[in-house]
Structure formats: structure tokens, C-alpha cells
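Morning - S-adenosylmethionine inputs below, output right after.
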Amino acid sequence: MTALSSTDNIISKASAHTIKKFELIEKYVEEWAQILLNYEKCNQLVFIDCMSNSGEYYDADGRTVYGTPVRVSHVLRKAAESYPHKRIDLYFNDLSQGKIDHLKSLVDKDSHNFSVHLSTMDGNDLLRRVGSLLTPGQETHYLLVYDPYQAAIDWVALMPFLNNWGEVIINHMLYDSIRATKLAKRETTISKYEQTYLTDIENLIPYGNDKAAYEARIEAIIHALHRGERRYYVAAFPFFNSKNAIVYNLIHCTGNIAGFKLYKKKAWQVFGGKSSTKNTHGLENQLSFLFDETDSYGTRTDENCYYVPDIAAYLQSIFRGRRDVPLNEIWSLLESHPVFPSDGFRPEIKRLLKAEHGAIIGRSSVTFSDRK
Ligand SMILES: C[S@@+](CC[C@H](N)C(=O)[O-])C[C@H]1O[C@@H](n2cnc3c(N)ncnc32)[C@H](O)[C@@H]1O
């Protein structure tokens, strides 16, 4: 008998960064559902995790941890009870029958307005089926989680979801691509990367270890596949493992700024007031000489892990010397920022503007100092 690989295990180990991923999706869904169920035009929510796994894991101490489908089923079952006139449908699917059988024992039971649909097939086939039923109206809001173990993305299956009313969360497995693209020899492996990045392998080899090149490629594909005229919002947050290597980006895609704002807020809250799971070893608060164009003293900034003081410093750089800047103007600048949240950290940002940058905080406006 051959040993089971970690992908075959029904209950496998979840590392700390994976548990953060479950938390982020759970917390996002909680508030997403509340907002939409309160919205008069929305009659139905659809949540899909087309590569759902078994729903159960154990952590580094051997304790049970639940995955996305179990958490989301609990959250949405409660929401269905509070909104008896609205429908909630959940689709969970995995290639493994054993995993889906196990998940069945963990998800909440159906009710008159809440149904869990379980299946065992290629997740991309499920998306093709569900995708062909999507309508452009606003009565049904869906959220699709696309979460493979490898950098394998079927864009044709995702297309309808990027182009209808709803949101998509894609796990971009950077670790896999950075490590393996340059070594890919087998035809199936090469075609996996070519399909994911929609380009020939020769164009990917020069990316080497440059994670930003892979990230930019994926973001460009998302924007190219979205056909609508309205702005499309894409927010990506990196997840680092305990060795501080990047494992994946969890990318949220939406045509609605409210979803974009909410995802940024939830990511920063789940990471504990920063923008990733990276361990910056306390260096973020240390004053040091910056060998940059300013050649001044300041705190270090890590573009893979921003902290709330980085938000305050950014605002100071934009509004330096301006008097009575309305708070609305400040928060709306943050709304469209790709990483910084506009909600969830306002008191802390104001406190830092005053303490670190000499700003005068008024009831509805801020006067910024001249400091650099
Ligand atoms: C990263 S895990 C999913 C974790 C889950 N989304 C969660 O958050 O709890 C990836 C799962 O995808 C399944 N899988 C991989 N490729 C698949 C495919 N093409 N179709 C369906 N399932 C797939 C694997 O069996 C594995 O259970």
C-alpha cells in the first residue's frame, strides 16, 4: 500500500497561515452576508467553494480546526434564520469523494431557505455548470472561492463569475510557481503554468523568483477578462509561512467598491493590524537611517507587510502642510488604495497623525504639519 500524500488525507494539518485564510474568508462572509441581506433588491446569496477539502484539519498542537466550508455554513445558516424570506445556497465540491463524505457530517442541515449542495467532480466543471445559470440581475449575489493546492487556474471556468454580479476570491499559489516554473519539464506541468498565466513557458522562465512579475500577470489577466465598463476592484493579500516565505496571495475581485473596502478591512483585522502574516521581527517600529532618496531617519517599511503607522505616514506625505482637510477626503483616498483600509482603523490613524506627524485633529477635518 502506498502512503497517503497530504493532499489525499481527509483530515490534514493546517499551518498558521492557512488558518488565517479560513478566518479571513469567514469574517468576510459574515459581514458580506449582513450587508447584502439587508439590501432590498437582494433575494438570494450563493456561496461556492469549488475545491473545498473535507472541512476539518488539525493545527500544530493537534487541535481540531475547521476549514472554510464548515465555518461558512455555520455563519450563513445563522444568517438564513434571521432572514427567513431570503434564500441562501452553498455549493461545496472536491475531487475526493472521501473528503466530501466527511464534510457532509460537519456542515449545517438544510432548512426551508438554506441548502448545502455537495458534489464530487472537477471544480472547474462545477463552475461551468453553475456559471451557465448566472444572470446579470442584482437579485442573486454570489461569492466564489477558488482555492487549488497548486498554481492551476482555469480562466475559462472563472470567466462568467468575473463578469456577473458577485465576487470571486482566488488563491494564487505563488510558492508553487516561483519554485517550479523554471524546472518544469513534463508536458502536463508546462501546460498547467501556461494555462494559469496564459502565456508560453518561455515567457515565464525570465520571471525567475520575481513574485511581483507573477502577481502583475495574474492581475492583468483578471482585468482583461472582466468585460464591464465600470471599474473592477482587485485586492491581493500575501500569506507567509513560518519560514517567512510567501506561499500564496488571496485575491479578491469585485465590481463593487463596498466589497473591496470590506475585504481590505477584514484582512487587516485578521492579520492583527497589518497587511500580511509576514514576521517582521519587530523591525517595523525601529527608528533607523533610511538609505533611500530621503537619506533621513524613519521607520522601516516592508511592502509585504504594512502597519498602521505606514498608513499615517502615507497620509502625511499626501496632505503635508494642508489645513482643514475634511475627514471624508482622507477616508475616500484610502478607499481606493490597493492595500490600505479606509475602515476599521480610523481612531488609530488619527492618533498616529497627531503623535507622530504633528497633525491637529478636528471634529471633521485634519490640519497637517509641514514635516516630511
Ligand atoms: C487548498 S485545499 C482547499 C481548502 C478549502 N478551500 C478551505 O478553505 O477549507 C484544495 C483542495 O482542492 C482539491 N482539488 C484540487 N484540484 C481540484 C479540482 N480540479 N477540482 C476539485 N477539487 C480539487 C483537493 O482535493 C484539496 O482538497
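Note: The two ends are 66 Å apart (CA to CA).

O.
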